[in-house]
Amino acid sequence: MSHTWSSQKYGTRWGLAFFHYSIFLLGRRFAYFFLYFVVFVYVAFFPSVRRICRPYLSRRFPGTGRPMFFFKSFVLVLNLGKILIDSAVLESPGAGKIKADFHDPADYHKIKNLNSGFIILMSHVGCWQVAMTALSRLNRPVNLLMLELPEKIIGTQARDNLAQRFKVINPAQFLGGTLDMLNVLKNDEILCIMGDRLFGNAAYALEMTFLGDRAAIPFSAYKLSAITQKPIVVLNTFKTGHSTYELSLPRIIHVPPRPGKTGRAYEPYAREYIETLEQYTKNHPYQFFNFYDMWDPKPIEPSDGNPARPAPA
Questions:
Q1: What is the end-to-end Cα distance of the chain in Å, rounded?
Q2: What is the DSSP string of 112-141?
Q3: Exposure of 260 by Cβ count < 10 A (0-12 exposed, 13-18 middle, 19+ buried)?
Q4: Which whole-number Å values give the CA distances from 125 to 87, 179, 182, 192, 261, in the listed order?
Q5: How far apart are CA 40 and CA 157, in angstroms?
Q6: pLDDT single digits (tens) 16-26
Q7: pLDDT for 154-188, tens place per residue?
Q8: Is 144 exposed, middle or buried (0-12, 13-18, 19+ CB in 10 A)?
């Protein structure tokens, strides 16, 4: 199975522009309504769409028959479409507002009261732009480890808005941006990394059991934490209504200095993260959007075609 999944395969520039103008002129509800027809066509007539849903759905819902698998694929892709529409709303003045609050108000204060820089470990769940909006309230520089954002996917305005609010560290640069990441943590800034997707060499991943099967989980975040002695804050978002999201902080992970020389030394801390991710898929099974096959043992190669979410080192 291919490791590269690209939103460009399933959307043209004019198609994305249609949704952007629909949101602005007719509102998000119209865009949602039209989305049902678009998603049905893609799931029904593009086998590749069902194929990229299978690695996750077959493990989250083992033993699912064909009719139910089709339905579950439809719901999963539909929710992804709504998330993408919501992310466009966040970058479109006058298109409506989205409210995001912490599920437990105390979680926000836990982050705010951290007296040093820290690592935000996110996943391909919910809407990461919502999490970024919440982090912007901390009045502390936020850095995103992610591939460059091509204009044809998110639009000039969204790309420029993102660049103004957050510093982007591109993992495709020299040493995967490690020097930049170490520097921002040394300066007590916030570094955001995705914890559920591996790029490049499989030597930088651990084989961890996730949803009953062995999956490749990168350990870069835990290694950075050990070197800099900065905590790791696991942060998730989930859609709760038409215009509402909630954020949760299921765990803060502390990695001791020099836990060991091999990747296996970081396995206990990666297990803490995996436990939170499994609980998330249990509570919100149709808001997990990692369409890369985590369970395929082959190393994953970077793809410029999927810039929509931060990428791990």
A1: 22
A2: HT--S-EEEEE-SBS-HHHHHHHHGGG-S-
A3: exposed
A4: 13, 27, 26, 14, 31
A5: 29
A6: 566 666 666 66
A7: 445 555 556 566 888 887 777 778 899 999 999 99
A8: buried
